Structures are given as C-alpha cells and as structure tokens.
C-alpha cells in the first residue's frame, strides 16, 4: 500500500494541453461498475490513490525551475525546499505539467513512463 499520511509524491512531464493532462487521469468503468485504471495509474503501476488528494497543474510555458513549478501548490512552503534538496533547483528538462499525490509515498518502481517521470517523495507534515 503506497498511501501514507504526511508524504507527497512528485511527478513531472509534458502535455499538449490541460485537457490532454486531464484525460491522462481519466478512470472509466465497466458495465458491472468495476473501475478501469487511468493511463497514469497503468504507467506507474499504481493500484489506487485518493483523487481528492491529487493536485495537477498545466503551464502554458515550459520551465525547468522547480521553485516556479511548485509555487502555489498546497504545503509549498514545506515541500519546495525538500524537493530542491532531492532534485536541485533546476531540472534536467523543461516541463509544463506537475502532478502531486498527497498522503502517498510512491515506491518508485517505475521512475519514467511515456512523457512523465517520478522525481521523489518528501514529508510535508
């Protein structure tokens, strides 16, 4: 189980649009009501996470400035310095999409999938 209170996992990547990014998270259902995992869940081997604790941002301008990319997210004052300690202030690529899963400690078994990449997990409270 990767759900873990007080931790947040960071994923970055590129999307063509906000709509495309939203489709990446779309969970569909069978006629019997069983859920069919989203592309995001399939890409990273995630069986379940609470969608209420997910924050996603699409920027019209790509950037490699981690401080800028994480500005305005919940608990940013706590998590920005922690992620900068792990990744450095400048990423090795420019991205326009950021995904944060709160109360989730991703195990990192898939660190890169298609256009998205897992950067790490930090404690936020």
TrEMBL record:
The organism of origin for this protein: Laceyella sacchari (Thermoactinomyces thalpophilus)
Highest taxon above the source species: Bacteria
Protein name as catalogued: Immunity 22 family protein
InterPro entries from the UniProt entry: Imm22 (IPR025560)
Pfam families found in the cross-reference section: DUF4284
């Amino acid at each position: 189980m990767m759900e873990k209170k007080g931790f947040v996992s960071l994923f970055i990547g590129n999307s063509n649009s906000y709509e495309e990014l939203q489709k990446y998270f779309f969970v569909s259902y069978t006629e019997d009501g069983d859920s069919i995992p989203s592309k995001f869940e399939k890409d990273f081997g995630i069986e379940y996470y609470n969608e209420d604790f997910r924050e996603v941002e699409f920027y019209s301008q790509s950037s490699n400035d981690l401080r800028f990319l994480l500005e305005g997210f919940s608990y940013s004052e706590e998590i920005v310095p922690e992620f900068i300690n792990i990744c450095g202030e400048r990423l090795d690529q420019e991205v326009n999409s950021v995904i944060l899963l709160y109360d989730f400690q991703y195990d990192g078994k898939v660190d890169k999938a298609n256009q998205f990449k897992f950067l790490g997990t930090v404690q936020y409270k």
